[in-house]
């Protein structure tokens, strides 16, 4: 018997070690376990300086995560524009899909970006997820490219700084 899907959840910036561990476990389950991304490329030096967000069910179960790169860490993904953040590593657990967790995480990352004074958020979307990000206001640009063997497109959404 599978567990019932959680109906209520919250998102928050991951600061405590336990929150960060939960973020990394969700990424391992989704990217390494489900999508066969090699574990050695899933985690990188940016994890130490990124802003991580976490979605948790009322019982504390981790449902999803994402991260925001900013400043010099994001420059390589944003064309060098230091006013643009880079959203990445967005992952939602299998049992939480379809509940709006992914959209809530994107909005939480945008709020963190605005707090940092950024004017836009870029991301590299897996091509199957383009529609999801388009519904959230992101616009694709540039050609399709492979990342970890999966086709991606760059996308951007302008945001207002806080």
Summary tags:
Aminopeptidase, single chain, 162 residues
Structure notes:
There is one protein chain. It is built from five helices and seven strands; from the N terminus they run βααββαβαβαββ. The chain is of the alpha+beta class and 162 residues long. It has a single domain, classed as Gcn5-related N-acetyltransferase (GNAT) (Aminopeptidase, 3-Layer(aba) Sandwich), CATH 3.40.630. It has a seven-stranded mixed β-sheet with strand order 1-2-3-4-5-7-6, sandwiched between helices. β6 and β7 (150-158) form a beta hairpin. The model has no long low-confidence stretch (mean pLDDT 92). Its EC number is 2.3.1.-. One of its GO terms (molecular function) is acyltransferase activity. Residues 10-160 form the N-acetyltransferase domain. Pfam families: Acetyltransf_10.
Q: Which assembly state applies to the chains in this document?
A: single chain
Strand content: 25-35%
What spatial order of strands do you see in the largest sheet?
1-2-3-4-5-7-6
Q: Quick one: how many beta strands? A: 7
Q: What fold name goes in the CATH topology slot?
A: Aminopeptidase
Which CATH architecture would you pick? 3-Layer(aba) Sandwich
User: What's the average pLDDT?
Assistant: 92
**Inertia-based shape:** globular
Structural class: alpha+beta
Number of helices: 5
Order of helices and strands: EHHEEHEHEHEE
**The named CATH superfamily:** Gcn5-related N-acetyltransferase (GNAT)
The helicity comes to 25-40%
Radius of gyration: 15 Å
- Using the coordinates above, name the CATH class: Alpha Beta
Biggest sheet features = 7 strands, mixed
Runs in which pLDDT lies below 50 for 5 or more consecutive residues are: none
Number of domains: 1
> What's the end-to-end separation, in Å?
45 Å
């Amino acid at each position: 018997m599978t567990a019932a899907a959680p109906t209520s959840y919250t998102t928050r910036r991951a600061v405590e070690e336990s929150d960060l561990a939960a973020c990394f476990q969700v990424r391992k389950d989704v990217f390494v376990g489900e999508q066969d991304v090699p574990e050695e490329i899933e985690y990188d030096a940016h994890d130490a300086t990124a802003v991580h967000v976490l979605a948790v069910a009322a019982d504390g179960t981790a449902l999803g995560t994402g991260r925001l790169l900013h400043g010099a860490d994001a420059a390589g993904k944003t064309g060098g524009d230091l006013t643009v953040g880079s959203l990445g590593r967005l992952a939602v657990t299998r049992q939480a899909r379809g509940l709006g967790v992914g959209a809530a995480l994107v909005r939480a990352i945008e709020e963190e970006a605005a707090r940092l004074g950024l004017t836009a958020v870029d991301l590299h979307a897996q091509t199957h997820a383009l529609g999801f990000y388009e519904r959230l206001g992101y616009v694709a640009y540039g050609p399709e490219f492979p990342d970890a063997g999966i086709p991606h497109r760059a996308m951007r959404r302008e945001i207002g700084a806080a």
